[in-house]
Amino acid sequence: MKKKKKVIKPKVRNLAIALFTLCVACSPPSRWQFKKLIRLEGCSPVGIAATSGGLWVSDAASNRLLKISYEGDVLEELKGFQRPMHLSLAGEDSVLVANYLTDEVVLLENGRRSAWPLNRQVNAPAGAAFNKGWLAVADFYNHRILLQKDSMTLSVGGQGHEPGRLYYPTDVDFSEGNLLVADAYNNRVQVFDLSGNFLKIIGENDNIRTATGIATDAKKLIATDFEGNRVLLYSPKGKLLEVLKDSLRNPSDVVIWKKQLFVANYANGSIAVFERS
Amino acid sequence: MMLIGLATTALQAQEKPTMVRVEVDGLSCPFCAYGLEKHFTDLDGVKDVVIDIKKGLLTFQVDDPAKINEALIRKTVKKAGFTPRSVVYEKEEKSDKTKG
Question: What is the pTM of this model?
Answer without folding.
Answer: 0.86
